[in-house]
Design a protein that fits this description.
With 403 residues, the protein is of the alpha/beta class. It has helices spanning 58-63, 90-102, 116-124, 164-174, 189-206, 221-236, 256-262, 292-299, 308-322, 328-342, 361-367, 386-397; strands spanning 4-7, 15-18, 52-55, 67-76, 81-82, 108-112, 132-137, 145-147, 155-160, 180-182, 212-216, 245-251, 302-306, 351-359, 370-372, 377-379. The protein is built from 12 helices and 16 strands. Helix 2 crosses helix 3 and helix 2 packs across helix 5 (189-206). It is globular, with a radius of gyration of 20 Å. The model has no long low-confidence stretch (mean pLDDT 94).
């Protein structure tokens, strides 16, 4: 792949530098129209979803904003939105799997997730010959649905009777074995650049970089991706020369990133009681070079803490004004936008991009048939015998080491 190089200052997050400083929209569908700035040479056949940006009329009128744009990531045929798992995590899965496919990777791809990421990778993995291990906390099983027609024979679902951090730890131990390869988290360039297409789609729709960017975050990687994509757009020269102010949001009181900025600690009971537990990450990439702190500093950004009550109200307002359901995590972002409008931080003529990171799930389930993934194995973190676990995984999925 000669289309990009990698930079990695001070041992922080690796970042792609693409040969094409100016991006051209291609004729490929969905996310792949931005293939110039994705770390792949080809598209993943059968994966054609992407972000759809539109100018709001309903919510904008409700909030008194003249230039509110919504980046919708989900299922909504009315605007041609067709992400099969109704979440922008699909934007991470497609490029990641295609990148590994082009590298002829045959090891078992291992993903630890609190729900949406696992669903996205389970849906996309059948499009390549890469086997997939999902390691999820037991509380997330209700989120692990995929379209009924999607094969799941290349997926091993390991359910951890613990929280997300404990699932990550089990995943890390498994990935020490040669048959497994970690998805990479925040360090995965395909994942970040895939999420960055949200900003690219919006910039082409608005003909400029927005003044403000709102998103709910767990690890904060989506905010980093928006920042990185904006720097590429400035370098392109056609979209303005000003970075958007990142307005990130978390679900208090279970908000590690919010605490990192504003002080305080989260309860040991977290993520219990959260409006959406996918927004809880005990070890987000905050202080590392290229991480959340640097992104906030570079953009004069902020992190707001939204309560369950604010999110519930925001979800109702969005449905009433825009006409489609949104996932709970996205409601946190809407709540942050409402809060910033009420406090006067956002002015009526500011250009605002609101990232709806997941939506149309209720609509999708009404119109289509889904199936839930069933655990191949359930264990307590303290009972994890990694060698025995790996034997069962390999027995189902097989593993051909690529070296």
């Amino acid at each position: 792949m000669g289309k990009y190089t990698l930079t990695n200052e001070n041992n922080g997050l690796p970042r792609t530098v693409y040969e094409k400083a100016q991006i051209d929209i291609t004729s490929y569908p969905g996310i792949w129209k931005f293939i110039d700035w994705l770390p792949v040479d080809n598209v993943l056949n059968g994966f054609d979803g992407g972000c759809v940006t539109y100018k709001s009329s309903g919510l904008s009128r409700e909030l008194g904003l003249n230039n509110l744009y919504i980046a919708f990531n989900g299922y909504w045929p009315e605007i041609n939105a067709n992400l099969n798992t109704c979440s922008f995590k699909d934007l991470e899965a497609g490029p990641t799997i295609e990148m590994l496919h082009e590298k002829k990777e045959k090891r078992i791809l291992t993903v630890a997730s609190a729900g949406n990421t696992a669903r996205a990778f389970a849906n996309a993995c059948h499009l390549s010959d890469i086997p997939l291990l999902l390691v999820v906390p037991k509380s997330s099983l209700s989120k692990l649905w995929i379209p009924e027609e999607t094969p799941d024979d290349r997926v091993f679902l390991l359910c951890v009777d613990g929280d997300y951090s404990e699932a990550i730890e089990v995943s890390n131990q498994i990935c020490e074995l040669k048959e497994f390869i970690p998805e990479g988290g925040a360090k995965n360039i395909a994942r970040r650049d895939g999420m960055g297409t949200v900003m690219l789609d919006a910039a082409f729709k608005m003909k400029k970089i927005p003044d403000y960017y709102f998103q709910a975050v767990g690890s904060g990687t989506g905010g980093i991706s928006a920042w990185e994509a904006s720097m590429r757009l400035i370098n392109d020269g056609h979209f303005g020369n000003k970075l958007p102010v990142l307005k990130l949001a978390q679900n208090v009181p279970c908000a590690p990133l919010f605490n990192s900025v504003h002080g305080g600690v989260y309860s040991k009971d977290c993520p219990k009681g959260m409006y959406d537990g996918v927004l809880f990450n005990r070890k987000p990439p905050y202080g590392i070079p290229g991480g959340v702190a640097e992104a906030l500093d570079a953009t004069n950004g902020t992190i707001d803490g939204m309560t369950n009550e604010q999110a519930e109200k925001a979800s109702e307002i969005f449905y009433r004004t825009e006409g489609v359901d949104i996932m709970n995590a996205a409601a946190i972002a809407v709540a942050a936008l409402i809060y910033n409008c009420e406090t006067g931080n956002i002015k009526e003529n500011d250009t605002v991009l609101l990232n709806i990171t997941g939506g149309g799930e209720a609509l999708y389930k009404k119109e289509k048939t889904i199936k839930y993934l069933k655990p191949d194995m359930t264990l307590k973190p303290e009972d994890a015998d990694i060698n025995e676990i790996s034997k069962k995984i390999i027995n189902k999925l097989g593993a051909s080491i690529y070296a």
